[in-house]
Each structure stands twice: as structure tokens, then as C-alpha cells.
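Hey all, sorry for the wall of text incoming. These are the two entities for the joint prediction.
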Amino acid sequence: SAVISQKPSRDICQRGTSLTIQCQVDSQVTMMFWYRQQPGQSLTLIATANQGSEATYESGFVIDKFPISRPNLTFSTLTVSNMSPEDSSIYLCSVEQGSRYRNNEQFFGPGTRLTVL
Amino acid sequence: GQSLEQPSEVTAVEGAIVQINCTYQTSGFYGLSWYQQHDGGAPTFLSYNALDGLEETGRFSSFLSRSDSYGYLLLQELQMKDSASYFCAVKLRGNTPLVFGKGTRLSVIA
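and here's what came out:
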């Protein structure tokens, strides 16, 4: 199974600043996904990051606010720009990896807990 | 669009059995997954059903009825450590990520 690490694990930021979250996977994967989970809520997909192409954003999320990089098959970054308190959330990186036991299982990183003051 | 419905909260007694239901409305349905998430933790995979029927993995089982657009997660011999949020998630055809339900918070009491 894929092992995913995220940096930072948590941060407290001031309004108007930006934070870049890093996601590293221990194996090459085609697609990486970024989710947001607000306190007590479900996971909401922000975007899909493919290596070598622009990220695909879900409705309600735009590239200017959440720019994403995917320089290779094991790494991606998500930037939360011009932050406001409403951006306080857990940000999760996820990858899909099939196996002969579990078809298309999606693995999640440990998450980045962001608090915006 | 896609929608999934599951109960928001369930409480059960240690040692008992609990069933968490999930109904979905989607286009291009491929399979149904279940994830467990403890407070402060990341979601972890529990089960996946692409075909009708029951899949059993230890104390956890998952069921799918494609014709009814319905599935459930069955937890047996409940333990205190099973207290967590449980999410059903739909896998759609193509290279698409999971779409998650709102989650069910399970509280196991003594």
C-alpha cells in the first residue's frame, strides 16, 4: 500500500498570507487528489493533480486560490493563498493505487491542520 | 451530481452489532467503499464492493445492492476503539476520485 507523508502536519497562519502544503508518496502514482475536511464535516475534493498537466478543479475551487504543482509522479504541492479564517480546515492528499486484493483503493496522507487567525 | 445519504450519528453498546446504511444517487457508479476516521486521524480504508453481495473482513462486513443503490457496513463485536466516523464513498467509472458521504459518527458505550 502507498505510504503518504505531508508537510507541515499543522500550522497557524495569519489572515492574508499563503501556505504551501507538500505531499510525498513512496511510489509513483498517476493521479493525486487534494481534499479539504472542515471540522466535523466530510471530505470535499478540491482538485485532481496529474503529472505533466494542469490540475482539474472541482466546482467552488479555483486555481488562483489553490494553486497546485505536480512536478513528478511522487510529489505534489497545494498552496492555500490569501488565507481567511474560513480556510481553517484539514487538507488531505490522496492517491489511488490498485492491487489484486483491493481494486482502486484510495490512500490518504495524515493531513495538514490549518488554522487561520 | 452525486449524492450519498448516511445517518449522522449512531450509538451502540460494546460487544453488540451495528449496521451503518448508505444510499446513493450517482451516474456512472462503479463501486462503494467504506472508510474509518478517528478524531485527528486520516481516513483509512475498510472495504470495497463492486458487485452485489456481502464482503467480510474480520469483524467488519460490507454489503452492496446495485439495483437498490444501497449498501451498508456491519460492525460486529463492537469495541470501544471502534468509536470513530465512518464514511461511505462512491467510486465512479473512469479515473475519478472517490465522492464521500457526510459520514456517520459511531459512539460505542460500555
